[in-house]
Amino acid sequence: MGMDYQRPEALVPVQFKSDAPWKEAAPGDSVAKGSWWEIYDDAVLNQLEEQAAEANQSLQAAYARLSQVQASLGISRSEQLPRLDLNASANRQRVAQDLSSTGSSYYGSQISLPLVLSYEVDLWGRVRRSVEAAEADVKSAVADYQNLLLTLQAELARSYFALRVVDNEIELLEQTIELRKATRDLVKSKFDNGQVGQLDLSRSESELAATEAEAIGLQKQRGELENAIAVLIGLPPSSFSIATEPLTQGPPPVSSGLPSALLERRPDVAAAERQMAAASARIGVAKTAFFPAISLTGSAGYGSNQVDSLFDWDNRTWGLGPAISLPIFDYGRNRANLDRSRAVYEEAVANYRQQVLVAFQDVEDGLNGLQVLDRQGQSLLQAARTAKQAWEISEKRYRAGLVSYLEVVDSQRSALQAERALVQLRGAQLDSSVSLIKALGGGWKMAEGV
Q1: Fewest CB within 10 A of the end CB: N or C in the chain?
Q2: pLDDT tens track for 249-267
Q3: What pTM value is reported for the model?
């Protein structure tokens, strides 16, 4: 009963807005996602990803949910075969005088040892459709697990790169603090010699204290990121720390043929598609409720009122007979259940099509983000160079007594802001590359089939 499942069409663009190449996708979410984070060539990140896969508690809970669905599939499959039960029983009773056929009370025993065989004749395909739905549920649960794993890996990579960006900012601020200390000492020397006023000295000390305060504030941000990473890898934050290291790598280049991985490996799209298949099969299950349910039941064994004669050949028992159940009047229950099953399927179709659109949006965002950030980075690099030159020139002019210290302060601030913006941009590029990898269901090498 019911229609055989066919995947409905979804709105698929001809190409991406960006210049990324395109090729038609073939579903391949079952392909292992691989260690995609190794593309960043960071030994610490590699170790953290391995720990997260082994010890993250949310991932272990998801695996337990997957095991539950797999067990449910075993239950559904068991209905395809006959069921055999041993229903042994024994009782001893006293028969009252008025109920006795002999006119006097007596004691009696009864021992029964039958094997009962039952089997549902799957004439309308209820069991087969149930198994079909359960198999689709398992595949959907596997895809959900893979999606959670990919999300965990991406979130860990993002948090790690954010931590390294903070490390770079702290290092930059510490270098700036040393430079501003030297500048403060210079201004203090000029003040002691009467060459500058109290205003310049106060400004130099204020800028030094403000930079030190910024560096201290970043330590708080670093601690929070470190704690978040600890939870992701299944460790208590109090027992986990990451050594400070500068961020040296940039985002990996996007490979050709990359967008084809979008529908090939995205587990969330696969999960939505398999939920449709399960909902489609359950329409067939609902339709079978309108038809007779046929079952065969048989039993064979021994019965006696004495233990020593229980297995005598003359004490054998058996029985065999079919049973038919046909709904006559259920006040619209079966019709409502069928309508509900069809509505669940329509919901699954809409969710699937929406998930496909979201998948393409994610890839568009990732590709566009990397391209825009690359152009922005070129401008920021030029801004940082010129700001540093301006700082150096203003300091020389101040040493020569040509300008006030206010010009030095402004040039220092501009140079520091440009350097920090450049560091933050690199972090944004790495974050966008991780988002794009997640949107495509894996790294570049896996997308190329390497």
Answers
A1: C
A2: 778 777 655 555 455 667 8
A3: 0.76
